Amino acid sequence: MKIKYYYSVASPFAYLAADRFVQLVEKYKIEVEEKPFDLVGKVFPSTGGTPVPKRHPSRLKYRLIEINRIAKKYNVAINAQPKFFPPSDPHTPAKFAIATIKTGHSLSFGKECLRYLWSLEKDIADLNVLKEICENLKIDFDKIKTLSESDEVSADYNKNSEDAIKEDVFGAPSYVLNNEIYWGQDRLEYLEDALKK
To answer: How many independent structural domains does the chain possess?
Structure first.
């Protein structure tokens, strides 16, 4: 059984779902195709999405309520208005995540980027922060940095975004199982229902 996991390294809802998703993966021994993508730059413009800073104040207000409500329910440490959101450069950490995936470190680097941004008040666009994440995960920073700057990783990043659009994915996190989309942290229970079948 295989799930395609689409997420942005800057999504608060991907962060709020990250640990629970990993638990599902371990519980059901699922194969995961991890696909960090360009949500704001590529997917939103193609699917009718609006970047957070451009949303109506009522939507922004409710978004903060939801983030805090979900965090409290699942006991996840979060700052709903972190200093470094949106990141000045979401692409570099996403490409780092892809590079780590390609070297056998699945469901780790991207998850840490989310934690650093939403809980630790760190700037994931800062190479020093990315280096700290690599060191904490016992990953060779120089190797990952070089790979992240390669044409191969850039192509994968673009393809992840194109694949998302082709599969009608429009938000993060999104999980695709048997060609069916489960969008959002609050769809994990439905995803588990499907896994039980």
So the answer is: 1
Structure tokens at 7: 């997420």
Report the pLDDT value the prediction gives residue 155, as an integer from 0 to 100. 98
- Structural domain of 177: 2-196
181's CB contacts (< 8 A; 6+ apart) are 167, 168, 169, 174, 175
Residues 153 and 110: their CA atoms lie apart, in Å, by 15
At how many degrees (to 10) do helices 141-148 and 151-166 cross?
60
pLDDT band at residue 1 using 50, 70 and 90 as cut-offs:
confident
Closest listed residue to residue 88, CA positions, set 126, 116, 50, 53: 126
Average pLDDT, the chain: 97
Q: In sequence order, which residues have a C-beta less than 8 Å from that of residue 154 and are 6 or more positions away?
A: 95
183 phi, psi to nearest 5 deg: -100, 125
Per-residue confidence band for 134, with pLDDT thresholds at 50, 70 and 90:
very high
Which ranges in 8-126 belong to alpha helices (H)? 12-28, 44-47, 57-74, 91-102, 109-118
The model scores a pTM over 0.85: yes
Give the CATH number for residue 102: 3.40.30.10
CB 176 within 8 A of CB 3: yes
Cα gap 33→124, rounded to integer Å: 23
Q: Are 157 and 95 in contact (CB under 8 A)?
A: yes
